[in-house]
Design brief:
Blueprint: H1 5-11, H2 16-28, H3 30-51, H4 71-90, H5 103-116, H6 128-144, H7 147-151, E1 160-165, H8 168-187, E2 193-197, H9 202-211, E3 214-218, H10 228-234, E4 239-245, H11 257-266, E5 270-274, H12 282-287, E6 304-307, E7 320-325, H13 327-330, E8 335-337, E9 345-347, H14 356-393, E10 398-400, E11 407-412, H15 417-426, E12 432-434, E13 439-443, H16 453-470, H17 479-487, H18 491-505
Parallel strand pairs: 2-3, 2-4, 4-5, 5-6
Antiparallel strand pairs: 1-7, 6-7, 8-9, 10-11, 11-13, 12-13
Bound molecules: pyridoxal-5'-phosphate.
C-alpha cells in the first residue's frame, strides 16, 4: 500500500484526471490487483479486533433466538456494553459526539421518549402533538436565527419556515434537492452545479452524488475560510446554490457569509448557511460579546439554513432543522403522490414514517433549556475553548489553524500530528483526524467544561508531544492510515479501502 515517497511527490504534480486513468489501468493488472487486495485485507484485519470488541464477551445473535430472550437478559447484555462505552464520553475524552450528557438531562429526554415512543407525524390525525412539536421546534429555531427580523413587514408566505429532519446530513440533502428542483422548474437548469468551499461538510458531496448535481469545491484561503473571489469565479449560469459554513466542521471557522450570500443574491440564486454545528451556539456567543459575523436570515441573501438540534440543541440523536426563506422554496422539498391505490400520500422529508418521540425530545430539550440555558452553556463552552486554545498555542511544536471559536484544529511543526493524536488515543482521548493539511481537532462540548477536563487535556497533550519528539520513528497503528489518504494520489484506492472498511463495520 505504501508508495515510495519520491513517487508520491512526483505524482502530486500530475493532473488528477491522468492519475485516475492511470489508476484504472493499473487496477486491471492482475498481479497488482491481487497485491492490493492482499495488502488491504491485512490492513483491515488489523483493525477488526478494535471494531468488534464484544465478540466472545457478550452473546452474538446472527439469527432470531428460537424463543424470545427474557427482557432482563436483554437489558443486562446491553448494560454491559453501555457501561463500557459511556465512560469515555461522560468524562469528556471525546471530541463532539455527545454535546450535553448530564445525567439529569438524559433522564429527562428518556422520559419524554417513553411518553411518545409510539408517535409518528406521518399520521398527523392520530398524533397532532407530534406536528405541534415539529412546528414549534422549527419556529423556535428560525426565530433564534434571525427570522423575526427577516419576516418583519413581509407576507406570511415569505416568512422563514422549515422542517425537522433526522440530522445535519438529511437537512443538507433536503436543501440541495430543493434547489435542484427549483432551478429545474423555474430556470430550466438541467445540469445543476453547487459552489462550496473545500471545507464544506461531505453531506454536500453526498447530495451532489445522490441528486446529480456537480459540486465545485473551491480551495479556502490561508485563514481556512471560504475565498470570496475564488467562489465568485466558480459561479456560472448552471449554479443553483452557493454554500458557506458557520462554522466549518474541520477548522471551526465561520465563512464570510455576508459576502458569499451577496454573491448569490446579486445573481438571483440560493445561498445555504450550514449552521449544523453553530446554529445553537453562535446566536448566544454573539450575545456574550464574542466576535460573530452575520450568518443567518438577517442577511437578505441567505435563503436556507441547517441547524442541528441533536448537536448543541442538546436533543437526543436523530433531529435537525432545515429552514427556508419562504414557503414557495420549501414546497420544492415536499413529495406528494396522488395516484397510488393506497390513497393520496404526502411527506415533507425523505423518510415516510418518522420517530415522533425524537421530535418530542427535541422540543422538550429546547423548551426546558430556554434562552438562559443556551446562553449559560455557550458561556461555559467558549470559556473552556479559550483555555484550551491558549494552552495549545503555548506548546511550541503546535499551532492552531485559523481563528476558531469552539472547534479547535491544531497541527504540528517538525513532528507527525497523527502520532500525537495516537498518543492522545492511548491516554483515552478521541480526537478527529483532519487532512490537507494534516491536523486534528477537538470540538468542545459541555462535557469538556467539567472541572479538570481542560487541564487534563493540555497535560496529556504536552506529554504526547514530548513522547513523539523523543520517538519520531514510532509508526503506531492508526497514524499511517490517517497519513495514507493525504499521500496516496489514487482516490479510487482510498475510496475502495473505505468501502471495505464499511463492509467490516457491518459484519456481525
Ligand atoms: C458543519 C456540519 N455540517 C453538517 C454535519 C452533518 O451532520 P450529521 O452528522 O448530523 O448528519 C456536521 C456534522 O458534524 C457538521 O459539523
Amino acid at each position: 500500500m505504501e508508495l515510495p515517497e519520491l513517487g508520491t511527490n512526483l505524482l502530486q504534480h500530475v493532473p488528477p484526471r491522468w492519475i485516475s486513468v492511470a489508476e484504472r489501468y493499473l487496477k486491471r493488472v492482475p498481479v497488482l490487483r491481487e497485491r492490493l487486495a492482499k495488502e488491504t485485507d491485512t490492513m483491515l484485519a488489523g483493525l477488526e479486533g478494535d471494531l468488534k470488541p464484544y465478540r466472545g464477551q457478550v452473546p452474538t445473535h446472527a439469527q432470531l433466538p428460537a424463543q424470545g430472550l427474557p427482557r432482563e437478559q436483554v437489558l443486562r447484555e446491553m448494560g454491559v456494553m453501555e457501561t463500557r462505552e459511556h465512560e469515555r464520553w461522560k468524562e469528556g475524552f471525546v471530541s463532539g459526539a455527545v454535546y450535553h450528557g448530564d445525567s439529569e438531562h438524559i433522564d429527562f429526554l428518556n422520559q419524554v421518549y417513553a411518553l411518545n415512543s409510539q408517535s409518528n407525524p406521518l399520521h398527523a390525525d392520530l398524533w397532532p402533538s407530534a406536528t405541534k412539536f415539529e412546528a414549534e421546534v422549527v419556529a423556535m429555531t428560525a426565530n433564534m436565527l434571525g427570522a423575526a427580523e427577516a419576516n418583519a413587514g413581509r407576507p406570511p408566505e415569505a416568512h422563514v419556515c422549515g422542517s425537522l429532519s433526522s440530522g445535519g446530513t438529511e437537512s443538507i440533502l433536503l436543501a440541495m434537492k430543493t434547489y435542484r428542483d427549483q432551478a429545474r422548474e423555474e430556470r430550466g437548469i438541467t445540469r445543476p452545479e453547487m459552489v462550496a468551499p473545500a471545507s464544506a461538510h461531505p453531506a454536500f458531496e453526498k447530495a451532489a452524488h445522490y441528486f446529480g448535481i456537480h459540486m465545485v469545491r473551491v480551495p479556502v484561503g490561508p485563514d481556512y475560510r471560504a475565498d470570496v473571489d475564488a467562489m465568485r469565479k466558480a459561479i456560472n449560469r448552471n449554479t443553483i446554490v452557493v454554500i458557506g459554513s458557520a462554522p466549518s466542521f474541520p477548522h471551526g471557522v465561520i465563512d464570510p457569509i455576508e459576502q458569499l450570500s451577496e454573491l448569490a443574491r446579486e445573481r438571483g440564486i440560493g445561498f445555504h448557511t450550514d449552521a449544523c454545528l453553530g446554529g445553537f451556539v453562535l446566536p448566544w456567543a454573539r450575545k456574550l460579546g464574542y466576535p460573530v459575523p452575520d450568518f443567518d436570515f438577517r442577511l437578505p441573501g441567505v435563503t436556507s439554513m441547517s441547524a442541528d438540534t441533536h448537536k448543541f440543541g442538546y436533543a437526543a440523536k436523530g433531529t435537525s432543522v432545515v429552514l427556508y426563506r419562504g414557503s414557495a422554496l420549501r414546497s420544492h422539498q415536499y413529495f406528494t403522490s396522488t395516484e397510488w391505490s393506497g390513497g393520496i400520500y404526502f411527506s415533507p422529508t425523505f423518510a415516510g414514517s418518522r420517530p415522533g418521540a425524537l421530535i418530542a425530545a427535541a422540543w422538550a430539550s429546547l423548551v426546558s433549556t430556554g434562552e438562559a440555558g443556551y446562553l449559560e452553556s455557550t458561556r461555559r463552552i467558549l470559556e473552556t475553548a479559550d483555555v484550551l486554545k491558549r494552552g495549545i498555542r503555548a506548546i511550541p511544536e503546535l499551532y492552531v489553524l485559523g481563528e476558531p471559536l469552539f472547534v479547535i484544529a491544531f497541527g504540528a511543526r517538525g513532528l507527525d500530528i497523527y502520532q500525537v493524536m495516537e498518543r492522545m488515543g492511548a491516554k483515552g482521548w478521541n480526537l478527529n483526524g483532519l487532512h490537507k493539511p494534516a491536523a486534528v481537532h477537538l470540538c468542545v462540548t459541555l462535557r469538556h467544561t467539567q472541572p479538570g477536563v481542560a487541564e487534563r487535556f493540555l497535560e496529556d497533550l504536552k506529554g504526547a508531544v514530548e513522547y513523539v519528539r523523543a520517538h519520531p520513528s514510532d509508526k503506531g497503528t492508526m497514524a499511517p492510515v490517517y497519513g495514507l489518504a493525504a499521500t496516496v494520489p489514487f482516490r479510487g484506492l482510498v475510496s475502495d479501502l473505505l468501502k471495505k472498511y464499511m463492509d467490516l463495520i457491518s459484519k456481525v
